[in-house]
Amino acid sequence: MPLKEKTIERMYWSIGEVADTLEVNTSLLRYWEKEFGTLRPKRTSKGDRLYTKDDIEQLRRIQHLVKEKGFTLQGAKGQLRKPKVEEAPPPPQLPLDEVRSKLMHVRKRLIELREG
Known about the structure:
Layout: E1 13-14, H1 15-22, H2 26-35, E2 42-43, E3 49-51, H3 53-68, H4 73-81, H5 96-115
Antiparallel strand pairs: 1-3, 2-3
């Protein structure tokens, strides 16, 4: 019987690793931590910050709102307070001929109802 390989998942990342991943300065991460009270990375005994996956996900949201969407810090704070809304997949597209056929059927039925 083959042994299962153990997968070790990382729990913490340093501020430098997170800054490199997000392509920002470490000073910006410290600033966001100060401005957004909900962001509280763990600290080592020396005071170094240790970020979890959830912390990094929150930083990605902040970065998206501020850098890509153009929100002010106040606006981004407001957006973060709102519950996350999952985007629904777009409805399936029907072929044009099928849509046209269905519309013609509806039109015919409406005419029947009006006349009848």
